[in-house]
Amino acid sequence: MAAVDDLQFEEFGDAATSVAANPDATTVSIEDPGETPKHQTGALRGSGREEDDELLGNDDSDKTELLAGQKKSSPFWTFEYYQTFFDVDTYQVFDRIKGSLLPIPGKNFVRLYIRSNPDLYGPFWICATLVFAIAISGNLSNFLIHLGEKTYHYVPEFRKVSIAATIIYAYAWLVPFALWGFLMWRNSKVMNIVSYSFLEIVCVYGYSLFIYIPTAILWIIPQKAVRWILVMIALGISGSVLAMTFWPAVREDNRRVALATVMTIVLLHMLLSVGCLVSFSGEHVLLSQISPD
Amino acid sequence: MAEAEESPGDPGTASPRPLMRDLKAVGKKFMHVLYPRKSNTLLRDWDLWGPLILCVTLALMLQRDSADSEKDGGPQFAEVFVIVWFGAVTITLNSKLLGGNISFFQSLCVLGYCILPLTVAMLICRLVLLAGPGPVNFMVRLFVVIVMFAWSIVASTAFLADSQPPNRRALAVYPVFLFYFVISWMILTFTPQ
């Protein structure tokens, strides 16, 4: 609707100038009924999105990048500030998970599903589930491999949980941080059309790890070939989600830098997957050397 | 704490009385967990004594003998404690961040009390394990743990579900499921020396 577009641009102008004029007039969540019908891409907007975001009228990732600093209206020491990161409904989380499982070429995960409403719920709980899935199914597979051996004494291997947790959470936070820093640095040299905020990158990485949860559960099957095939499939799916998300962000850049960036992303992902698999089945390799005593 | 208070309306009460009142309150909440109905008792008069008792009992039963502490075995007392409380706090924070209108301590209270079925499962498992290991033994334990796990989930959902807006209920309940699943796993995999 052209009328809505005009309205959007008007709001953008007004709010921007008013914010510029009064820098400390922090626009707290005043729901002006005239401003709420924001039919951008409509349906996916959650009901709770009534802060600055509405008034400043940003709906594209590029505008998000410009106004990222002004998105959150509450100061960071209040609880409300962190609530904005959990402003998702159940169906939105499911949609995002679905999007991470079905990478369609040309469809950008961030554009399609996150749309400047990154959440921390998905990344955090997907990582938590993954940690426990790996630890529990590793334990189970060890048990099944040694079922019937008289000399095998079952141990729950509780330490594995802490190790797995450290690795997975570190990956889910440090790699996005490094990538974000790198993209910001390249952005200062080459003007990119598309750029992502730190939270959006964390979001993509978090949701891309979802495929590893069923993979970890299926790793209970003690066949080496099956495990490697599963890892390849998982790596293929989540790697392509990541690659297709970040390709538009580096495309404008020098060809070699762009390719190197995407390759590094995929390589790190591969390291994580293979590392998990090796540590998962590594125990059984060790134990099989000890047990025939 | 019990000595300082005197129950109102009972002048000249001896000091053990408030302790009995607290114990009765805890016992009443246990009953509410065992027969979960939609009621506000757990939420209105929250207390953390019940969760503390349950957590300590569970941790004591789950810990291994000191001879085994060097090997990579099951959790130690402190680890169980940390998992339970850290898990409960995380779930509570998650629930509040999603916009639930339950207070911090009320949520901790509910989550702590709903560990009761799993503590009972731990007791039963330990008794069953005295009969010696074996597949039948394992099946019995598995069955008991599954039933108690389901009971915990049903009990805590009955109390917590109403505090969330309906479009986020599943998001708030899933971490509870994960939490009790991990505790159930620790109970099921407990092997005595």
Question: What can you tell me about this protein's structure?
Answer:
Chain A: GO terms for molecular function: small GTPase binding. Chain A: The chain crosses the membrane at residues 120-141, 161-185, 197-222, 228-250, 257-280. Chain A: It is found in: Golgi apparatus membrane; Golgi apparatus, cis-Golgi network membrane; Golgi apparatus, trans-Golgi network membrane; Late endosome membrane. Chain A: Its main location: Golgi. Chain A has 293 residues and is mainly α. In chain A, 66% of the residues lie in helices and 0% in strands. Chain A has helices spanning 2-21, 52-56, 61-67, 79-83, 90-101, 109-114, 121-145, 159-189, 198-208, 212-218, 224-250, 255-290. With 193 residues, chain B is mainly alpha-helical. Chain B has a domain at 48-62 and 75-190. Mean pLDDT of chain B is 80; it is low at 1-7. The chains are: A mainly alpha (293), B mainly alpha (193). The A-B interface holds A 47-48, 79, 82-83, 85-86, 88-91, 93, 121, 124-125, 128-129, 132, 136, 139, 154-159 and B 71-75, 79, 94, 96-99, 167-171, 174-175, 178, 181-182, 185-186, 189-191.
